[in-house]
């Protein structure tokens, strides 16, 4: 049996070596990286507000509440029962807890720190991938994420949690920019690229889907440390896969000099696509810190419910990215994004009307589905715009896409927390809903973006292999993961 096991292991290793150049394996690596990154991103959503509130208020609340070993099964629970399984004898509505409301800003800033750091890091990672290739930044992203996960597991103070969240932003920048750029390089046909990016975004959706309920259930029944240790183990497996498949030890710069980041940022069509990504994701970014606190205040929700409330949005995002990764190319990506922006706005406006966790199902489902429509159409169109109007090197343009994504998740929690505390959660939802609806018509300009004549001339004179709508991967595409690879001739 031992010899048979060794033979099977050898066969698996040999298969992996032979398939190292396969686009499917590259897609799998990007999928897993985005999955784990977004699990870490969202697993903290139900944990951090509860954990910080407990840490800040356990002494102040102890004299006023009767502690019991188990939470009663009655229909009414007080704020404190969310954190330490204690109950307060009362028959009226829960009081408006000012300390709980103040957590909006504190939690919002912590959540926003990741996106803010990622926002700052992205302009450096994009050009860096053009110089050294995608493999080394991708592996660096894993290493940083692993360290951040361990910090989350063992940190007990707000400052260390803030540092862990900020460090995650650096790792996410490396993984997302390098991952999307890698996919755009190996999937050069516009339709194939859209399908591949849709699958990769499915990894992001899976992370968003699994993260909140996984975090809330593990936190309530096991503790804060356990979910992060599990993520750390999964991250190690991902790192081993990257190390073996990508072999991130060689510098492999792009064969062409890419368009500068500043030039791409001046392109109005790229700005519209980036704006769609930013404002659509800002909606869910504002929900993440504010919704659990609003649920504690108005619904007396238990800890596990704070994460489960995001499940409809996560499931619908997964559905949306997989459906419209293929369908958006056929119906027109501009139209898909326009409808998605309108649906985000309408759904987010309906969130404050929910009276309990069941009332959140439909609006949260709509929010996630609509964001999936926007992301699965705008991410591929970023690569298409570069092919059409600039040099077909993708690190910088996906740095811009990630900057847009991060702006939504930086401004959303930080501004959202302050707005929720000042004028209330319903007005916060109204503001971002109206913004999405007003931005939606701008997507019409992406219906038929013009190509630049000098770009077309370069493509014809140089016989450039990039043909975004009619590219045949069997003819000219070369993508080398190491010096020993052969030209890819199938997929």
Automatic annotation (TrEMBL):
Keywords: Cytoplasmic vesicle, Glycoprotein, Membrane, Neurotransmitter transport, Synapse, Transmembrane, Transmembrane helix, Transport. GO terms for biological process: aminergic neurotransmitter loading into synaptic vesicle. It is a multi-pass membrane protein. One of its GO terms (molecular function) is xenobiotic transmembrane transporter activity. It comes from the Eukaryota. Belongs to the major facilitator superfamily. Vesicular transporter family. NCBIfam families: 2_A_01_02 (TIGR00880). This is Major facilitator superfamily (MFS) profile domain-containing protein. It comes from Anguilla anguilla (European freshwater eel).
């Amino acid at each position: 049996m031992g010899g048979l096991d060794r033979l099977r292991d050898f066969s698996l290793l040999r298969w992996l070596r032979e398939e190292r150049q396969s686009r499917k394996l590259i897609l799998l690596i990007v999928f897993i990286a985005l999955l784990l990154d977004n699990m870490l991103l969202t697993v903290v959503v139900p944990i951090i507000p509860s954990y910080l509130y407990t840490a800040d208020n356990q002494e102040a609340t102890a004299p006023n509440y009767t502690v019991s070993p188990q939470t009663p099964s009655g229909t009414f629970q007080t704020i404190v029962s969310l954190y330490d399984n204690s109950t307060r004898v009362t028959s009226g509505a829960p009081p408006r807890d000012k300390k709980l409301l103040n957590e909006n800003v504190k939690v919002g800033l912590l959540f926003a720190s990741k996106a803010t750091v990622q926002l700052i890091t992205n302009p450096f990672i994009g050009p860096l991938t053009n110089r050294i290739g995608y493999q080394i930044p991708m592996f660096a992203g894993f290493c940083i994420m692993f360290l951040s996960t361990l910090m989350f597991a063992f940190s007990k103070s707000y400052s260390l949690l803030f540092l862990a969240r900020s460090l995650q932003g650096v790792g996410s920048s490396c993984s997302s920019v390098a991952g999307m750029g890698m996919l755009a390089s190996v999937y050069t046909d516009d339709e194939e690229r859209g399908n591949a990016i849709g699958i990769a975004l499915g990894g992001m959706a899976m992370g968003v889907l699994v993260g909140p309920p996984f975090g809330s259930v593990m936190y309530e029944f096991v503790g804060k440390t356990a979910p992060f240790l599990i993520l750390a183990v999964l991250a190690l497996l991902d790192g081993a896969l990257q190390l073996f498949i990508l072999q991130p030890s060689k510098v492999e710069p792009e064969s062409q000099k890419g368009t500068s980041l500043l030039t791409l940022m001046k392109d109005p069509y790229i700005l519209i696509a980036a704006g769609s990504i930013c404002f659509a994701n800002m909606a869910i970014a504002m929900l993440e810190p504010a919704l659990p606190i609003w649920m504690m205040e108005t619904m007396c929700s238990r800890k596990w419910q704070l994460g489960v409330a995001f499940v409809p949005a996560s499931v619908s995002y997964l559905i949306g990215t997989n459906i419209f990764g293929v369908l958006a190319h056929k119906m027109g990506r501009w139209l898909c994004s326009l409808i998605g922006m309108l649906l985000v706005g309408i759904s987010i406006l309906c969130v404050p009307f929910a009276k309990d966790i069941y009332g959140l199902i439909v609006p949260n489902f709509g929010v996630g589905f609509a964001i999936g429509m926007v992301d699965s159409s705008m991410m591929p169109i970023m690569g298409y715009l570069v092919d059409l109007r600039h040099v077909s090197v993708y690190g910088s343009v996906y740095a811009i896409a990630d900057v847009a994504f991060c702006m939504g998740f930086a401004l959303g929690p930080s501004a959202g927390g302050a707005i929720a505390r000042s004028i209330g959660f319903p007005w916060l939802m109204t503001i971002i809903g109206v913004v999405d609806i007003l931005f939606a018509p701008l997507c019409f300009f992406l219906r038929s973006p013009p190509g630049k004549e000098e770009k077309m001339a370069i493509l014809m004179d140089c016989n450039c292999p990039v043909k975004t709508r009619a590219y045949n991967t069997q003819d000219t595409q070369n993508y080398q993961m190491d010096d020993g690879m052969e030209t890819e001739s199938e997929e």
